[in-house]
Amino acid sequence: MGARSKALFLDRDGVINHEVGYLHAKEQVRWVDGIFDLCRVAKELGYKLVVVTNQAGIARGYYSEAQFQALMQWMRHEFEARGARLDAVYYCPFHPEHGVGAYKREHEDRKPGAGMLRRAARELRLDLGSSLMAGDRCSDVAAAHAAGLRQVFLLSGTETEPCAGEYHAVTSLQQVQQWLVVAAAASADELSAGAEAAESAGGPPAAC
Length: 208
Fold this sequence. Notes:
- By secondary structure, this protein is α/β, with parallel strands linked by helices.
- The chain is about 40% helix and about 15% strand.
- The chain has one domain: Rossmann fold (3-Layer(aba) Sandwich).
- It has six helices and six strands.
- The N and C termini lie far apart (about 45 Å).
């Protein structure tokens, strides 16, 4: 079946684009500084790029799923044009309190639930234990922990209080990018050291 891939999971609003309140049109999009550089580096290091986003605006009736899909198609084109193609986009259109009609329900996909991450793992053959999350809310942290991700980064500016559980607090996406590069270098050093040790252990026999 082949080895499973690792992924960088990305929340959308507050991580990919600045939060404007129920974003649904491309004219409202303002990219977060460093998002394309981060995604290009992640791709170069072998990560799949997967967006996981709660969309309460659909649940509340502020915009339709078709409008969301049209916006995401445009955003995916923008990422691909910048050499950082998104591998998948998952969204949850439900809200247990403020949803309208069929959208008023709880759902395992809604973060802090891990439904979207687990579905991505099944459909994209991901190793969640080697995967990462970049978010800006405590619900992102909780979803990452529930899915068993290797690391979660919390971008400052949205939450006013600390989140439960362990996470790496960052003030910019450049810090996430730097972590990826350093972690990759450390892994490469470990592999090199292991290969050298194996070579030494299997060296020529001593002379009689």
